[in-house]
Amino acid sequence: MTPTVWADVRCPWCWMGHRSLAAALARRDRREPVVRASYLLDPHGEGHPGRTVREVALASWGMDEDGWRAMRDRVEIAGRAFGLRIRMDGVPAIDSRPAHRLLKLAQARGVDPEHAWDLAFSALLEHNRDLGDPEVLRDLAVEMGLTAEDTDPLWSSTAFAAEVDADHRAAVEAGVRAVPTFAVGDRTLSGARSVDELVELLWVGAEEAGR
Hints:
This protein is an alpha+beta fold. It is built from nine helices and four strands; from the N terminus they run βαβαααααααββα. The chain has a four-stranded mixed β-sheet, with helices on both faces.
């Protein structure tokens, strides 16, 4: 049973889950392939160009400064346990669909998905780069090992948009309501999970597959 993880690059908990899953896989005797599936936290949105998540939270989510600081600190402290430097105050409020399309392109070109996703998370959540900007995405593609020419046709077409939407639709049909969500066969775990919990999920899935 191939493990599947649904995630959105906008989600700091997904970056932590990404690292937890890598650690869990490293404990296994063999390296299993992982399906890294796109999930859109705001599937109908177009982002908020020029604004940060903090600004949107204070203006539109009914959150005050104290509430934002509490959430920011909880996320950033949790991230440090994974060696991550998350800077929530400056995270751009993007539509993540273009970044997901780039990740699909990278996978189609043979880029290691674990490496590509880690770079995307870092670009947005650590370095606060605007992943809604095609020029920024072009630079990110080069960091992934692609060429600028690889990505140029992406923005003048709908390439990989259907694959991203299909991932999200499959998640909804599977009952996924939060990310990250990890699935092996009929078993799923959602949210911030320990490495031990993910190792157990992988182990049970492998045992069931061998029956």
